[in-house]
Amino acid sequence: MPGDIAIAMTSFSDAISDTDEGVIIAIEVSAGAKQNRFPAGWNPWRRTVQCQVSAPPVGGKANRAIIDVVATATGIAKTRIRIVAGASSTQKKVLITGISREELLLCLPEPKD
């Protein structure tokens, strides 16, 4: 199992890129899920971290839930997280300000089966 965690964390790093403001993480969202979960897995084909939110994809509810679940999972304030691309898509780019790629990787919880 420890090898699986190392592989997942290495994979997660492929979805994260540094910017002048912080980092952008590529996320694939499943709205209307049974529970909120981040990270919920890894999509190796798209190189995205999976995110599940129970909110429906209506009226921005799922987007607000994404920010909430990312903030809760990482311990980063919601005010530092915003969706910068893909507002109406399941594929999103999320900006987290004031953090480096390495720092974000340390904040991400270990994947759960």
Q: Outline of this structure?
A:
The protein has helices spanning 2-14, 61-74, 101-107; strands at 16-18, 22-31, 37-43, 48-53, 81-85, 91-97. The chain is an alpha+beta fold. It has a single domain, classed as YggU-like (Conserved Hypothetical Protein Mth637, Chain: A, 2-Layer Sandwich), CATH 3.30.1200.
What does this structure look like?
Helix content is about 30%, strand content about 35%. The chain has about 110 residues and is of the alpha+beta class. The chain has one domain: YggU-like (Conserved Hypothetical Protein Mth637, Chain: A). Strands 1, 2, 3, 4, 5 and 6 form a 6-stranded mixed sheet that branches. The N and C termini lie close together (about 10 Å). The relative contact order is 0.23.
